[in-house]
Amino acid sequence: NIFGIDQDDDAINVAIFSVYLALLDYQEPKEIENFKFPRLINRNFFTSDSFDLNADFNNIIKKINFNFILGNPPWKRGSDKNSLFLKYIQERKKSESDKAKGKPQITISGKEIAQAFLLRTRDFSSDQTRCALIVTSKTLYNLNAKDFRRYFLHYYFIDKVFELAPVRREVFDKSNDPSIAPAAILFFHYAHGEVTGKNIIEHIALKPNRFFPLFKVFMLQRNDYKQVVQSRLVDYDWLWKTLVYGSYLDFNFVKRLKEGYGTFADIIKADGSFSVGEGVIIGKNGHYKVDNYINKPFIDTKKKHLSPFIIHFDPMSKWEHRFVHRKRKDEIFFPPALLVTRGIENNLKANSAILYKEAIFTHSITSIKTNNENLNILRIANGIMQSELFSYYMLLLASSIGVEREQIHDREKIGFPYLDNSNIAKYVEKIEEIIRKLFDEKQKVISPNIHTLEGEKKKLINKLNEEILNSFNLNEQERALVDYAVNITIPLIMKHKGYEKELFSPLKIKDPFLTKYAEVFINRFRDSFERRDKKFAIQILHSNHIIGMFFKVTDEGKNKEQIVWENKSEGDLLLKLSSLGYQEITESLFMQKDVRGFERDGFYIIKPNEKKLWHKAIAYLDAEEFADAMLREGKGRQNV
Q1: Among 122, 77, 54, which residue's Cα sits nearest to residue 46?
Q2: d(C-alpha 618, C-alpha 221), whole Å
Q3: Using alpha carbons only, how large is the chain's radius of gyration in Å?
Q4: Is the entire prediction scored with pTM above 0.90?
Q5: How far apart are CA 362 and CA 320, in angstroms?
Q6: Which three-class secondary structure state does DSSP give residue 340?
Q7: Is the separation of the CB atoms in 139 and 158 below 8 Å?
Q8: Strand-by-strand arrangement of the 68-71 sheet
Q9: What b/e string do you get for 102-115 counting C-beta neighbours within 10 Å, with b at 16 or more?
């Protein structure tokens, strides 16, 4: 009942050997002497290209109703235009053309073989067949794969996505390569003509946790698990990435930003004076002559000549190459232009600054060139790119960040929300001036002004950030979402210095973190109960490993303290926590449970004492979950 196809003879032989070993487990010792292994080669296992439609395996396998199709297709692009998988896609496109009018047409992006394998499963699928393939995560986020995803969502039910990209370094890092291939396991089945839009997809994104460095195990937490209606991913392709690091609250916020504001790209498109382009490409076979660049200032990203807000010109750094592999329009090297590197800062802010004098640079830098009249537009764009809102936006939407490598593509560099605010431009201009002064001071042997200037710079950057958050009208919930991304998620996935101590050390009793969490519940429920002359109060039981919040509805006077703290021993709390624990899924994967529920006079939530679990942003999610449960309970009683 087991069948397999692979181009590699060794892979086939190892598979057959593994099956033979398993068969021996079913034999009694006295039977082994006369036991004969069944012939499996070319009957069950085939050395062939899976896309060879003329190979013998097609006739054999198509007659079988499979329960499961499992695979780990190659993670690479086909280089030969005559590859069988490309011909297969072309043939399917022809055969489906008549039926595909008004529907998504079959396509794969960038000659990605894994995408073709996902679609090939259809040919061996009956109504009962369920598939699970390990594919490169880029399949779900690549900017050029949108049409593939639309087709796949239309013709296949996606049952579950298990995303491993956030832990790619822990799982796959065998070298110092900054780019580590990320993996996602897709569980799916062919729709056989059924409408897929109402299907519910389970989405699980495994995150780094405090247990892995110690025990080499992963811990799934409540917020790693989401459910999404399949049609949502058709309507909002960007939601694929938002699901990895965000929640439905983040979806609503990002949707508001996208629908409520234009983008920097819109400004560029509407104004004919803008020009966008990467710098030149240097190569051994360069044949484009660039004598006019010789001895001009050269911005070398390897030497960090470009940093946020400022370009430091090194008098010794001059362009020396007479030929380049790929030339660009000369205008992008002239001021004013906003220069943005492909790589991004460790806090996910852009590495960007305005060019005020002519300079040459390579393709690691993108130039957004305009005229002097639009200089403030560049300053506003640069200010937004240096904000926490930009970091948040890139985490939730940028296709590579937190997935493969920390870099932003040109479409993402100009695709962020933009608004016209002259105050942002003024802050950027002041910050540029301060940084220039700092640079000059640091060249001196003795400079007592550095500390003062650093303080002024920090204050201005904070004011700039606040101006941007206010400009986009962020409410308290949205600010909490940004704060969670900037101070919890980004340090975790970017492994900021000291992040383990900052994020995994236990919160102390009466920590402001816990107070802010509790206040979300107070603001959400207090008025509802107090209108009925009831008191809504919170009892917080604290220990070094576990925290419990008990939300009480009482008849006591309103002048009583709203939050009551109690320091409890682990034993006291554990008695209340018999169901709190860790469910083993595999020997390396566990699920961490929260305990939450209702009592006669209120409700409660108990979790490990871990900072990211008690953030204000998580409080909004938890409070809404309790509110939904109360609403469902109320409706149930009405129905009864």
Answers
A1: 54
A2: 12
A3: 29
A4: yes
A5: 12
A6: strand
A7: no
A8: 68-71, 130-136, 183-190, 156-163, 200-205, 225-229
A9: eebebbbbebbbbb
Question: In Å, how far are 55, 61, 119, 128 from 64, measured between CA atoms?
Answer: 16, 5, 18, 12
Pairing mode, if any, of strands 45-47 and 4-6? Answer: parallel
- Furthest-apart CA atoms within the chain: distance in Å: 92
Note the pLDDT tens digit of each residue in 251-307: 999 999 999 999 999 999 999 999 999 999 998 777 889 999 999 999 999 999 999
C-alpha to C-alpha distances, 628 to 191, 200, 226, nearest whole angstrom: 32, 19, 16
DSSP 517-577: HHHHHHHHHHHHHHTTT-EEEEEEEE-SSEEEEEEEEESS-TTS-SEEEEE--HHHHHHTT
The encoded tokens of residue 474 equal 């962020």
- 617's CB contacts (< 8 A; 6+ apart) are 249, 477, 480, 481, 483, 484
Q: Which residues pair with 183 in a beta bridge?
A: 136
Q: Tell me if 141 sits within 8 A of 405, measured CB to CB.
A: no
Residue 448, preceding bond cis, omega within 30 degrees?
Answer: no
523 contacts: CB under 8 Å, gap ≥ 6 = none
For residue 429, which of 386, 371, 475, 379 has the smallest C-alpha distance?
379
Q: Which pLDDT tens digit goes with each residue over 148-187?
A: 999 999 999 999 999 999 988 887 765 555 557 789 999 9
Residues 6+ apart with CB under 8 A from 20: 37
